[in-house]
Each structure stands twice: as C-alpha cells, then as structure tokens.
Amino acid sequence: MYIHELSPVAGSTHVDKRKGRGHATGNGKTAGRGHKGQKARSGGGVRIGFEGGQMPLARRIPKRGFNNIFAKPLDGLNVSVLNKFEDGAVVDVQAILDAGIISKCKYGVKFLGNGEVTKKLTVKAAAFSETAKKKIEAAGGKAEVV
C-alpha cells in the first residue's frame, strides 16, 4: 500500500453544503434559513445569553460574595505529606514535585495542619496555616515563607 492509495473510510466524510449559491445546490431561495424572522435576515441573530427579552438566567440568579479575578490560587497540602522526606531535608516546591506528591504547581503551595510531622525539616512554601506552622516547629523544623 502506498500513500497515494489511502482514502478515508466510506461514510466518514461528507461534502459541506454550499449555502446561498442558488437552486442547483438544493439550498436555493432561503439558503437553509427558513422563511423570514430575525435569524433569516442578513446580520440577524441574537447575542449569547439573550432570551428574547426575558430576564436572562445569568441575571436572575443571585450573586453572593466577592470573586477576585486576580487571585492566585495556591495548592493546599497537609503536613502529613512531609513524612515522605528524609530527616533534615529542605522541602520546597521543586522537592515536592520531584517526590511526586503533586504533578504541577502554578502559583505555589500552602501547608495545612492536617496530620502529624515526625521529622525535622526546613519547609519553604508560599503560605502556612497556623496549625501547620506550629506542627512543623514542634517537630524541630522551620517554616519559611517564600
């Protein structure tokens, strides 16, 4: 078999309809737009979310609180994952990625206080919860904000 002998499986492709090109195409007269109405007109149609003058769903639903569009969401990790590292190690984002604890880290890591730390570690992260900081320091380690 040669490259010039290849062809798509029968029925897997179809020829696009050429709209607005006369009666011979089978889409003559209204060109598949039906008769009259807003969507039949040139430049006709409605914007996304328009519901014919009815109050749109996006405006009917109540909004609560504040959503900061500039916020940089941190990846949360519990202090229990620190037990995977050697005693006396320096744990930063790159070390966590290399250990396979997380697969990617876009903005940084925040350590949370769930679990226990049994090893003396120097932990460098974007943020720490109060309980996480206490547990790391209680084990003899240091919690450094980077």
Structure commentary:
The protein is an alpha/beta fold. 13% of the residues lie in helices and 14% in strands. It has 3 helices and 6 strands. The protein has helices at 57-60, 93-98, 130-138; strands spanning 75-78, 90-91, 109-112, 122-125, 127-128, 142-145. It has a 3-stranded parallel sheet with strand order 1-3-5. A 3-stranded parallel sheet has the order 2-4-6. The mean pLDDT is 93.
Distance between the termini: 60 Å
Task: Kindly state the percentage of residues in helix.
Answer: 10-25%
How many strands, which pairing sense, and closed or not: the largest β-sheet? 3 strands, parallel
What is the overall silhouette?
elongated
Task: List how many beta strands DSSP finds.
Answer: 6
Sequence stretches where pLDDT stays below 50 over 5 or more residues? none
Quote the beta fraction: 5-15%
Please work out how many helical segments DSSP would assign.
3
Mean pLDDT: 93
Radius of gyration: 30 Å
> Which structural class is indicated by helix and strand composition?
alpha/beta
* Element order: H for helix, E for strand: HEEHEEEHE
Instruction: Give the neighbour order of strands across the main sheet.
Output: 1-3-5
